[in-house]
């Protein structure tokens, strides 16, 4: 159908998630696990930056601290404090960052000063713009982290949907439909949408329904990728929904 990418049913479990691959490296490090951790860091660095900023650090110090944290995480014994029982990348990164801020940052910075290039480049201009755009000024640093973690997962979900439409040769259709993901009940002008897509109004309703269904599937998958195998995805979904709703 025009204006829509076909979807498949979301799996009920997500074996060998990216975080599980990283956790497995605690016993047997491998190039695969190192690459997985690097990819996870690149995807999820902003919530940590936002946490550091909310703790009172300046943009410059937050950049240095976050960069140094990831350098240490990627290069040293970064899984020593990983808790298999909790099984959440979100929890692991938060605990590791707090430990680093309390005990290691100044020493690590002094040791590295004048050293090599940063391992994980951070777009701090983007980070400051995004941090300033968040109006949740009353939230504590931990709450800011959880909120930005959830928003990061949503952004990754939207990026995946955009890529799916592009792969199907319909990138314009996604740009037309994406506003329907946040529209409330009765907030969609299906006649206008159908005209923009060049399809019938009934087909437009189906396209929106399928997009929303696919969004839920992909969002669930993105969350699962941050959990160890067998961790409660539904519980994490509820936690992140509450983090987004908190103002």
Q: Could you explain the architecture of this structure?
A:
The chain has helices at 18-24, 31-54, 59-75, 89-112, 124-133, 141-167, 171-177, 190-197, 201-224, 233-245. The chain is an all-alpha fold. The protein has one domain. Helix 1 packs across helix 2, helix 2 packs antiparallel against helix 3 (59-75) and helix 3 crosses helix 4. The two termini are 39 Å apart. Mean pLDDT is 83; it is low at 1-15.
What layout of secondary structure does this protein have?
Elements: H1 18-24, H2 31-54, H3 59-75, H4 89-112, H5 124-133, H6 141-167, H7 171-177, H8 190-197, H9 201-224, H10 233-245
Keywords:
single chain, 247 residues, mainly alpha, 10 helices, 0% strand, globular, disordered N terminus
Major sheet description: none
- Helix and strand sequence: HHHHHHHHHH
Q: Total domains, how many?
A: 1
Mean pLDDT: 83
Question: Treating each run of at least 4 consecutive H or I residues as one helix, how many helices?
Answer: 10
End-to-end separation in angstroms reads 39 Å
The computed structural class is mainly alpha
Low-pLDDT windows of residues: 1-15
Oligomer: single chain
Share of residues in helices? 55-70%
Q: How much of the sequence is in beta strands?
A: under 5%
Shape: globular
Number of strands: 0
Radius of gyration: 20 Å
């Amino acid at each position: 159908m025009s204006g829509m990418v076909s979807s498949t049913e979301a799996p009920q479990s997500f074996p060998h998630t990216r975080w599980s691959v990283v956790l497995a490296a605690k016993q047997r490090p491998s190039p695969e696990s190192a690459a997985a951790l690097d990819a996870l860091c690149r995807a999820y660095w902003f919530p940590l930056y936002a946490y550091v900023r909310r703790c009172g650090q300046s943009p410059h110090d937050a950049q240095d601290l976050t960069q140094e944290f990831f350098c240490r995480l990627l290069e040293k014994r970064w899984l020593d404090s990983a808790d298999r029982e909790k099984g959440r990348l979100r929890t692991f990164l938060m605990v590791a960052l707090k430990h680093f801020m309390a005990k290691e940052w100044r020493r690590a910075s002094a040791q590295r000063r004048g050293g090599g290039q940063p391992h994980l480049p951070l777009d701090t201009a983007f980070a400051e713009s995004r941090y300033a755009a968040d109006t949740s000024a009353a939230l504590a640093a931990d709450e800011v982290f959880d909120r930005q973690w959830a928003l990061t997962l949503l952004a990754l979900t939207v990026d995946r949907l955009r890529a799916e439409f592009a792969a199907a040769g319909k990138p314009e259709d996604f740009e037309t439909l994406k506003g329907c993901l946040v529209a409330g009940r009765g907030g969609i002008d299906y006649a206008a949408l159908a005209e923009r897509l060049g399809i019938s109004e009934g087909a437009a309703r189906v396209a929106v329904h399928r997009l929303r269904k696919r969004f839920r599937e992909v969002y669930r998958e993105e969350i699962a990728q941050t959990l160890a195998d067998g961790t409660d995805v539904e519980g994490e979904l509820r936690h992140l929904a509450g983090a987004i709703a908190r103002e």
